[in-house]
Amino acid sequence: MIEQDTKPSLEEEDQLFRLLRQLELVPEASQRATAQAIGVSLGRLNALLRRAAEARLVKISDRDGPDRRKRFSYVITSRGAAEKRRLTDRFLTRKFAEYDALHAELTGTVSGLDPFQHRTKLVQNNLAPIPELYVSYDSAQKLKVEAADLVSHDLTPRQICDLELLMNGGFNPLKGFLSEADYNGVVENMRLEDGTLWPMPITLDVSESFAEGLELGQDIALRDQEGVILATMTVTDRWTPDKAREAKKVFGADDDAHPAVNYLHNTAGKVYLGGPVTGIQQPVHYDFRGRRDTPNELRAYFRKLGWRKVVAFQTRNPLHRAHQELTFRAAREAEANLLIHPVVGMTKPGDVDHFTRVRCYEAVLDKYPGSTTTMSLLNLAMRMAGPREAVWHGLIRANHGCTHFIVGRDHAGPGQNSEGEDFYGPYDAQDLYREYQSEIGCEMVDFKHMVYVQERAQYEPADEILDKDSVTILNISGTELRRRLQEGLEIPEWFSFPEVVKELRRTRPPRSKQGFTVFFTGFSGSGKSTIANALMVKLMEMGGRPVTLLDGDIVRKNLSSELGFSKEHRDLNIRRIGYVASEITKNGGIAICAPIAPYATTRRAVREDIEAFGAFIEVHVATSIEECERRDRKGLYKLAREGKIKEFTGISDPYDVPESPELRVETEGTDVDNCAHQVILKLEQMGLIAG
Fold it and tell me: Which GO terms of the molecular function aspect are on file (predicted)?
């Protein structure tokens, strides 16, 4: 907003709105032409331009005209673009109110149009275009040049997903990352400050050091991980959130067993920034480009085909025959066309990678009538927030032009908490969605739990089978499917399509042919390296897969020679080991790691990185600190006791004992060969090596 002593009048706001809109459309028009276009005098135009430049909404530069007379060129800054969007909303709100008043005067009834800030207005017509945050191509080129002088923030993968959906309208009505007031409203009662329904905090989390260098009102450049500028943002808010409160309110518990809570505490930055975003260009996707659609592209597609009703199916897993039957029934029940809308952004750690899933979706798509069904990929970073996430997904699908949305049993549930119980009830998501359905603007279709009735050779909803006691009901759980894939067992045709099974077997061969990582952890001197060396020799004797040892001392010498022993550097060293091990695992090899790895949070992060590609076997070498000190040939424990070595694990720095490792090895009174053999037996038990 332009800073001045008195609040601008509505007339002044409208003039500024028209000026910014005109300058974006015709940045190099003469002053006379600009004044005529917005309906003001030249004197008034100059006053408006001067105030806009002082407020850094417009950048004015000289240029030579065709008649060699001095001309001016006007470029709307990122702040100006954000102000234009704000003024557009206010302008439309007033115009709707004026229309309502005129309609009431002429007819004696209300118009039926809701105020602009209410969600329902935005989804009255699922085929009409919705607002995006991108500037025009010409303005984007100029903003790229201007942004070269701005402080830059390199976005994380999750932030890139969020920014893309902010810019293309998927997160409409958000105009940027949430302000502190909007954040508090969302966390407490799922509403923005103006009362609009929005269940999920969309914030830009950054480090304390980055936040300290910023001033409120400053513009920053938002770049992807390769340094490509995607947008600019005006920082209007900066605060340190109460993350425990956010976890309890949004996810239902401050429990690190929840992947989003773990991310919140152990990955996300400590400071949040909020402010409007000006989109310059969308993130580049090199995969499945023909399957990726913005909300407006999908709306145009539906408009072209005349699809008035569209039911969306959310999925982050491969589709099997039960899903096909479910979606058929949902579309038939809603008398709608079907949009298969899988998430290909960040999902739950351990999920099948999106490349494999999309190939599976494309194989199944041929099973649907082509004229009734389409598929589009959604680059969303899921939070696995259960009930809140279901409402969020509904709002996003409404923005994409859908009129109906399938809400599943335990929709977007993350699994079990630290007590071994489900985070959310099986129908909590459906109950919350039903409560807000009218505001979401996308009608819910209940998920039916489909099972196969052998005698009738068809799928039926489990709760609609009246003769359960006299028929054979078949079903395969996700856990059972993974077991069959891992062990190379048959997957029956009644459960899945041969094309889907073929794709899954390509990516997830039997465990005996997969790569894996054995990760030893324990105190210095516990025997990790000795056991790891013995294990390496035994595995190499068996043959079949390459084996790589990533011992703590070897890695320190060859991979992390510049690192010290602070917590930050030790974490970085373990993450490097984890990265190398994940690459070895991904390519079918065996990685044996033997660092101290004292922190549970870092070990969990390494596990998640590796389990995306294969098995992770944590082996706790549970030698007591007293025994390690007795064995110490280098005298490190003595130096640590004397204070000559700082931050020494077990003496002056903590060690988080693994709570549930795959294997715990006691070395006191047990020889090395026996310890290594225990690991071999565990690998055989898990099916990773042949017995």
Answer: adenylylsulfate kinase activity; ATP binding; sulfate adenylyltransferase (ATP) activity
- Which one of the listed residues 18, 316, 383, 511 is annotated catalytic? 316
pLDDT tens digits for 446-473? 877 888 999 999 888 888 888 988 999 9
CATH topology of domain 7-115: Arc Repressor Mutant, subunit A (1.10.10)
Of the candidate CATH numbers 3.40.800.10, 3.30.70.3400, 3.40.50.620, 3.90.1150.10, the domain formed by 289-452 belongs to 3.40.50.620
pLDDT band at 69 (very low <50, low <70, confident <90, very high): low
Q: How many CB atoms sit inside 10 A of residue 279's CB?
A: 24
Q: Is 582 annotated as a binding residue?
A: no
pLDDT band for position 111 (50/70/90)? low
User: CB of 485 within 8 A of CB of 465?
Assistant: no
Q: Is 39 annotated as a binding residue?
A: no
Q: Are residues 236 and 276 in contact, defined by beta-carbon separation less than 8 angstroms?
A: yes
Out of 315, 347, 379, 667, pick the active-site residue.
315
Sign of torsion, CA 415 416 417 423? positive
| Catalytic site includes residue 374 | no
Q: What is the DSSP letter of 135?
A: P
How far is the C-alpha of 205 from the C-alpha of 647, rounded, in Å? Answer: 29
- Catalytic status, residue 321: no
Active-site residue flag, 315: yes
Dist. CA 502–CA 606, nearest whole Å: 29
Which of the residues 317, 372, 417, 548 is marked catalytic? 317
73 is in an annotated binding site: no
Residue with tokens 């859908």: 402
**566 assigned to a ligand binding site:** no
| Rounded-to-integer distance, Cα 556 and Cα 548, Å | 15
Residues forming CATH 3.10.400.10 domain(s) in the chain? 137-279
Classify domain 137-279 at the CATH superfamily level. Answer: Sulfate adenylyltransferase (3.10.400.10)
CA distance 595 to 518: 11
Whole-model pTM: value is 0.74
- Tell me phi and psi for residue 513, to 5 degrees: -115, 0
Give the pLDDT band of residue 2 (cuts 50, 70, 90).
Answer: very low
| Residue 304 labelled as part of a binding site | no
CATH 1.10.10.10 in the chain is located at 7-115
- Return the bridge partners of 73, or none: 61
Asked if 318 and 363 touch (Cβ cutoff 8 Å), the reply is no
